[in-house]
Design brief:
The protein is built from 9 helices and 11 strands. By secondary structure, it is α/β, with parallel strands linked by helices. α3 crosses α6.
């Protein structure tokens, strides 16, 4: 599932911006389909403009029946009546979705025979101090088994001891959910930590869900700002 909201708060209309001759949402959709990993790839949107963009090229697309605050809510509505076990959420502003990283997420659930993992997500190591301190970059810290401890827009952990050898990880907006986990998310109210940080995956942690983080070295660009779009254009070249 690719949740695709037109009126993004930081960069309205970003999914319809041009990236190498195609719109950002079209690039994301095409890249996800090209992995050949999924039974179905469906864009879920609240926008007639985005709906037409995907439908006109023969892609699969659904209109949200309700207005949602986040992509997980939009996906939960879409999968409620579908016969599925696991759903992957590729954000609409992730045009560099890659097969290797998505395969790693799928393998988490194949290996989880006891069904102890509620969802899995991607992280990538970052070293640039500007990016570590950028509030548009969501950071994640994990335990020894790579289960998420917390996500933040602040640099976590705080580098009080700069010689401690801490590795910083950026959270990439790609998730894999068990169906029940995302349905639970849809019905559970937002709590203060999520409301403060504006990071939806914090809700899972606040309610005791287990998030397995998977490291990838594919950086790409998540398009949150006009500057990100310019970086994506350079990378696309």
């Amino acid at each position: 599932m690719i949740p695709a909201r037109y009126d993004a708060s930081r960069f309205p209309g970003k999914l319809m911006k041009d990236l190498g001759g195609k719109t950002v949402i079209r690039r994301t959709y095409d890249a996800t389909v090209a992995t050949h990993l999924f039974d179905d790839v469906i864009v879920v949107t609240d926008s007639p403009i985005i709906y037409k963009e995907i439908a006109d090229v023969g892609g699969k697309v659904m209109m949200s029946k309700k207005t949602h605050d986040c992509g997980s809510d939009r996906i939960a509505e879409a999968v409620k009546d579908l016969d599925i076990d696991v759903v992957i959420n590729v954000q609409g502003d992730e045009p560099f979705a890659d097969k290797v990283s998505l395969s790693k997420l799928i393998e988490v659930f194949k290996a989880d025979t006891k069904k102890e993992v509620d969802l899995a997500s991607l992280m990538v190591q970052i070293t640039d101090e500007k990016e570590i301190n950028n509030p548009n970059t969501v950071k994640v810290i994990v335990d020894q088994n790579n289960f998420a401890l917390y996500f933040s827009r602040s640099p976590i952990p705080y580098p009080r001891d700069t010689q401690a050898g801490v590795i910083y990880h950026k959270h990439k907006g790609v998730y894999a959910f068990r169906k029940q986990a995302i349905l639970d998310f849809y019905t559970l109210p937002m709590l203060p930590l999520e409301a403060s940080e504006k990071i939806e995956c914090i809700r899972y942690l606040e309610y005791g869900k287990r998030i397995k983080m998977v490291e990838t070295d594919v950086v790409g660009v998540e398009i949150d700002t006009p500057e990100d779009l310019e970086r994506a254009k350079e990378l696309w070249k």
